[in-house]
Specification:
single chain; 336 residues; alpha+beta; BirA Bifunctional Protein, domain 2; 11 helices; 10 strands; binds phenylalanine
Length: 336
């Protein structure tokens, strides 16, 4: 057997160029220097060679072994270096640190907590209600008649889900937090003083003052002999604490099917400005609502109110576009 050592050397050099990791290097080593490798094979052939041939083949094998050994050493160093560099990228202790930014509550959450906190101090209990509601709780029990425009699909999001308590009806996304009044009254006996904050939904076209989702806070107080003066006193105390003592307020007669009498509360607050701004609806709980909740006729009286969180936050902080609340632009959020 004859060997072309020049070619073998070249072949080894050529093969080594594609070696980039320890595994490929080991395969390369085994191929040439392993027990059954090429160099061993050449050495094993020596005894069969003539005296004249032996020295050249022996030298060729030695040279090949040396070349392969050198390549392996070089590659080992190169691979180590490469590993070092890539691990350096993960842990460069000299790199300036990236400071974690401290977040904070969204202005809507802050406003809800502030308002709920004020009512809590006045003795109210905070309660939750589901965003998915029945037509009964959202409308019928609140004395909102079947043909009332707010029941229309244009004003309420109906879900593609059957109401388990009335198979002829579909569930909906509550359009106000008032159905919370029904849930509370159905499950509790007066005296009651509850606050129900949460999201509500209306299929309004989105603009600077409308969103298809916004937040309301409902208030309900039921006992014997609750009077309209209690409602006025309570809401005045709230507004003075929330907006400041110099706030001006007025109760403007209004209509809600679930309260009688009903009013809207306006405030005049922005210093220098004389405009009245509406901040909530309120009134004395309608007897039909007590009836729907299963309370005995004429036994209790109550007051209720519902305020829009976005609206109040916009008034308090001079925000002019409701969409700012939902866009999650840090430049806006960081200001509060
Ligand atoms: N639910 C009414 C609304 O969304 C507000 C309201 C609540 C009015 C309670 C009176 C009493 O406009």
């Amino acid at each position: 057997m004859s060997w072309n050592f020049e070619e073998l050397q070249q072949q080894a050099e050529q093969e080594s160029t594609s070696i980039s990791d320890a595994r490929a290097l080991e395969e390369f080593r085994i191929k040439y220097l392993g027990k059954k490798g090429l160099v061993a094979e050449i050495y094993a052939s020596l005894p069969q060679l003539s005296k004249e041939e032996k020295p050249a083949v022996g030298k060729g094998a030695n040279d090949l072994r040396n070349t392969v050994s050198r390549i392996i050493e070089e590659k080992k160093t190169a691979i180590k270096q490469k590993e070092k560099q890539s691990s350096k990228r993960f842990l460069d202790v000299t790199m300036p640190g990236v400071a974690l930014e401290a977040g904070h509550q969204h202005l809507i959450t802050q406003t809800i907590e502030e308002i709920c906190g004020l009512f809590e101090r006045l003795g109210f209990v905070i309660q939750d209600g589901p965003e998915m509601e029945t037509e009964f709780n959202n409308f019928s029990a609140l004395n909102i008649p079947e043909d009332h425009p707010s029941r229309d699909g244009f004003d309420t999001f109906y879900l593609d889900a059957q109401d388990p308590t009335d198979k002829t009806k579909k569930l909906l996304l509550r359009s106000h937090t008032s159905p919370g009044q029904i849930r509370i009254m159905k499950n509790n006996k007066p005296p009651l003083a509850v606050i129900i904050p949460g999201r509500v939904y209306r299929p309004d076209a989105v603009d600077a003052s409308h969103s298809f989702m916004f937040h309301q806070i409902e208030g309900l107080l039921v006992d014997k002999d609750v009077k309209f003066s209690d409602l006025k006193g309570l809401l005045t105390a709230f507004c003075q604490r929330f907006f400041g003592r110099d706030i001006k307020m007025r109760f403007r007669p209004h209509f809600f099917p679930f309260t009688e009498p009903s009013a809207e509360v306006d405030i005049s607050w922005a210093k220098g400005k004389k405009d009245w701004l509406e901040i909530m609806g309120c009134g004395m709980v309608h007897p039909k609502v007590f009836e729907a909740a299963g309370y005995p006729k004429g036994k209790y009286t109550g007051l209720a109110f519902g305020l829009g969180v976005e609206r109040i936050a916009m008034l308090k902080h001079g925000i002019t576009d409701i969409r700012n609340f939902y866009e999650n632009d840090k430049r806006f959020l960081e200001q509060f």
